[in-house]
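Hey, quick one: can you model this chain's 3D structure?
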Amino acid sequence: MGTMMRYVAAALLAAVATPCVATYYPATLGAEVTTVPGLTEPYPYKHYSGYLTAGEGRQLHYWFFESHQSPSSDPVLLWMNGGPGCSSLVATVGELGPFRVGDLGLNMTLNPDTWVKVANVLFLEAPAGVGYSYDPTGVYVTDDTQTADDNYLAVQDFFDKYPEYKKNDFYIAGESYAGVYVPTLASRVLKNPNGVQFKGIAIGNGAVDFPILGNSLIFFGNYHGLFGKRLWNALTQYCCNGSQLAQDCNFGWNITDVKCNEAVDEANSIILHGGLNVYNLYDPCSYEDEPEPVAFATPKKGSMSQHKAKRARHEVSEPRQLSESCQLDRSNEYTKTPTASAKKDCSFTSTGMTSKRPYTSRKHLRNGNPAARSSTTPSST
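Sure thing. Here's the predicted structure for all 381 residues.
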């Protein structure tokens, strides 16, 4: 009877204990992040980081954040930045992620508007050679087809490592050149979901048609009063054969006219490097020497109208050094700090993040225009 009772007790103990350990998976042991260098506030939610295996052993780095609300039922959203060659850590610490890099890249604070409040967000660095993702062979030439195949394999590997999320709705999202990454990955998931509950995609400012994008940027600048009459006349004369109709203009694709190219370069410089907030033209930009963001609409800096007038008269001084709201220097500097660059490979573990791999960007070959993209090998120094 004593032996029988021991068997019954053991069975009951196993029945009770099983639910308590069911959510732990060997593949994710050691992947939980418990320390983020420079974070100035407590972050009470779980997040994980490591590598997902793609084709031919390529390793794509990820950072996965559980939803603040209900991780077990909230959707899983995969996010990719574009470029091609831009790290998705740009979004993690500068856009929709839970963190914001502070002054000079030395610290991080919490982002009150993070998407992680309502979704489990997976930030993926792709293709190999971007950010902390790498190819063990050291070959960093790729194209859209290989990138899509690798991203698909990475998604499958993610759900193998985190099977408890496979029942959740799944979305694929991104910006810029992710206008290529997102639909090509979505096509593969639709063809072979392998149990993934795929529901849809989201693309912000997607690079879906380069001639249209190039033209629309110049028309945007003109109709927002960023150019003077001289520049607009040069653009229409040399790039549009004197017309002002969009279908007659070529501001951004295989430009052969030297004077057109010079005018387009000047226009792009005004829009992208002239001290304007490229995310929202009427939002403020902050500066390295000013503790608070300052809008052009304030008397201290002059109004937007004054700024336009100076453009027209060619009186604008050299662009000032902008901080995080208008460029990504803070994010780059953060990954160069000693605590974030102690080892060769990225490691988000219980001891925090350590890496020497470059934070952003590698140029890659792109389908349809291989000459336009060069290939470089990541530095590990």
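One thing worth noting: The two ends are 68 Å apart (CA to CA).
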